[in-house]
Sequence to fold (128 residues):
Amino acid sequence: MSRNLYLSLIASVLLVLCTRVDAQGPYCLLCPTQDLEDVNTPTTKDYPGPWETLDHWTCSSTAQTLSCFYPSAADPGTYNDCTYSGETGFLVSGPSNFCVGDAVRENKCDEAIFQGANGCSAPSGTTQ
Fold:
């Protein structure tokens, strides 16, 4: 009987913890301010940067993606497109040697581009 009681307690605690995580509300995503394409080529060991800075972005509530565009140092006049999942914030497409691992998460949705269950704050924008 005590074994069932312990299992019930563990299940109850897990249920409470999972419910509290869901109750925290939607997460919010921003584009990383820079990609990983180094402007200075070749780089020195002590000075790796600077990197390309975010130029513009697009957001799709339907596809649940956030695409961030950075000027290409290797191919001037073009952009590196780093697309992140709106659901997880993880990189879903783009050159992995230029794009950072995931989108920036923030707790407040004030300036977020992708706002969890609410989708995109706008379909596109620029930092210029």
